[in-house]
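Async update (no meeting this week)

Hi team, since we skipped the sync, here's where things stand on the single-chain job. The sequence we agreed to prioritize is pasted below, unchanged from the tracker. I ran it this morning and attached the output directly underneath so nobody has to dig for it. Comments welcome in thread, and please keep replies under the output.
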Amino acid sequence: MDKSYAAWAARWRVPLGFALGVAFLVWSRPGMLLLVAGGLVALVGLLVRGAAAGYLEKGRTLATAGPYRFTRNPLYLGSFIIGAGLAVAGGSWPLAGAFLALYIAVYAPVMQREQATLGSQFGERFERYASSVPLFFPSLSKRGTGLAVHEGFRWERYRKNREYEAALGYALVMLFLAVKMLLS
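Output:
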């Protein structure tokens, strides 16, 4: 993967996500069934992100417990599930396609870049972890047993990682979509 592209993707992932979010709010066409189904899918993603945030000490330790036992990137997986759920809730298939394309184009290189950083920071411990836990799609059969520091979820980590912002964003988008649906 080209390092300059990965750096570009890391820098622009949030602004591009906000731009797609604005387009989503403008062109979404929610219906009751899609709103409920998509909202529930997005809620699962929110729970995945929240669980991951409660185990993560960014830059200090290698997270290998909780959802990190099944995927090395539960935060990005949770974001993907949230985005997919909101795409369904919004009822615009072109926007859903744009989300998928943007996600792949931006987050694939970002994950690769972060893997390199973790590899240099945590060395052999990370290499063992990476060999036993998949990069993105979780595996229940191949998981990082024996690697985890058995420290549980902590709300102070959740708050420190500001994961409540994702929960607030989810609530606001769902409220917006519900109002948009009712006014249509």
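Quick observations from my side:
The radius of gyration is 17 Å.
The chain has a mean pLDDT of 90.
Reply here if anything looks off.
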